[in-house]
Amino acid sequence: MTSSQPSKMRKILWFVVAIAVASKQMEKGIKKTVQAGATVSLPCELETPGGTVQWLQNGQPVVLEAITANRRLWNVTRNGIAALTIQDVATSDEGLWECGKVRDDGSVGSKVEILELTVLNPPVEPYIELEDKRLPQGAIITLQEWQLLFIKCVAENSSLPVRRIQWFLETTNVSSNGELFTEYLPGNETYRSWSLLSLNITRAFNKKELVSFVFHEAWIQPVTASVSLNVLYGPTFSISREPGFGIPIVEGMAASLKCDVEANPPSDPLWQKDQGPLPFDVSSGGYLNFTSISRKDAGWYKCTTKHLFGFFTSFGYFLNVRSKPIYIYSVKIEATSAGNFPFLVAVLKCFQPIS
Ligand SMILES: *[C@@H]1O[C@H](CO)[C@@H](O)[C@H](O)[C@H]1NC(C)=O
Ligand SMILES: *[C@@H]1O[C@H](CO)[C@@H](O)[C@H](O)[C@H]1NC(C)=O
Ligand SMILES: *[C@@H]1O[C@H](CO)[C@@H](O)[C@H](O)[C@H]1NC(C)=O
Ligand SMILES: *[C@@H]1O[C@H](CO)[C@@H](O)[C@H](O)[C@H]1NC(C)=O
Ligand SMILES: *[C@@H]1O[C@H](CO)[C@@H](O)[C@H](O)[C@H]1NC(C)=O
Ligand SMILES: *[C@@H]1O[C@H](CO)[C@@H](O)[C@H](O)[C@H]1NC(C)=O
């Protein structure tokens, strides 16, 4: 009972000294910050000829386990220093690393601090956000022409903020329409960075891919996030004719008018004559075919279409059909009596067609 008092005192004293030594070591401790995925070497400078060393992470002996065995490798350098090499460093490798000599009883004595490791995480896979909704990679977004699009590319959960996000519309650099923002999330001790892109949508953007490139020190190449654009726009008409414009169309000829409607969603052309529906069946595909055109077919034609955005009509086009040329023959018959046979001479006179 009496002998336990000084023993307790000794224990307390030893504990205080140990703390003092430990805090002294913390002071001089080397701090090392690496990007996740890097390789770190932890050499144990202890002199342990013939002995065994033990590495400790945050005071816990490091044991070989299946999860880390292929990343944590033991080496002995030529000058006899044992080193622990950690490949593909992850957050789980963070903390204070020490090594100590293994005593005969298996306990670890005389620890030496190697370094305090901090691992910087790159952002998790960036993604595109539209109206506060996360979009899957390659999603198709439907927009209207002349709409002002606000779209975000978000890179979060990084130890350091992302400093550069670029935007490309197919091969066109549209980064100048983007603005980079960063916020620190104290709860997660991470950064959330995003680029807000604003684009005035035109039909030229239809079916194009909008790609954001996120740059980070930990990445050899930028990581991308993308969406495809589906731009809705109203119809424009183009009308062509067979035979071509400029060649007169004459009764009885074969002729055709063609109407092409350019719109998204696609819209079917429909011909109208003189403000009303066509008095005859129309062939499909925008064609209005006349196998043998007549004077009655002349008139004002318009191409129309029923589109998502409403009913649209083209400019009127006047189809002129000329009458068949009328030939007036005047025949003059002369009888001659040269030789033994009388000759008949016929003179034909031809008049220009009347249009
Ligand atoms: C330790 O060994 C591994 C392979 O076993 C090697 O990749 C690494 O460079 C070595 N490290 C040192 C410090 O020798
Ligand atoms: C987009 O551009 C067009 C043509 O330059 C313009 O008329 C329209 O007002 C713009 N839209 C917006 C929302 O700024
Ligand atoms: C964010 O990073 C932390 C480590 O800093 C990690 O534990 C966590 O799983 C990450 N979250 C996501 C969503 O990846
Ligand atoms: C794209 O444009 C931005 C600025 O608008 C510029 O900083 C960046 O270097 C350009 N990227 C490429 C690949 O040209
Ligand atoms: C931590 O980050 C995740 C996204 O990675 C987020 O959903 C969550 O709200 C964050 N938590 C805090 C406390 O900031
Ligand atoms: C109408 O005429 C065009 C050529 O002018 C032809 O390609 C098309 O097949 C014709 N359509 C019909 C239904 O005959």
TrEMBL record:
Pfam families from the UniProt entry: I-set (PF07679), Ig_3 (PF13927)
Coiled-coil portions: none
InterPro entries the record matches: Cell_adhesion_signaling, Ig-like_dom, Ig-like_dom_sf, Ig-like_fold, Ig_I-set, Ig_sub, Ig_sub2
PROSITE patterns on file: IG_LIKE
Mode of membrane association: Single-pass type I membrane protein
Residues of the Ig-like domain: 6-99, 235-307
Subcellular location: Membrane
Annotated keywords: Disulfide bond, Glycoprotein, Immunoglobulin domain, Membrane, Signal
Signal peptide region: 1-24
Annotated PANTHER family: IG-LIKE DOMAIN-CONTAINING PROTEIN, NEPHRIN
Protein name according to UniProt: Cell adhesion molecule 3-like
Source organism: Limulus polyphemus (Atlantic horseshoe crab)
Taxonomic lineage: Eukaryota, Metazoa, Ecdysozoa, Arthropoda, Chelicerata
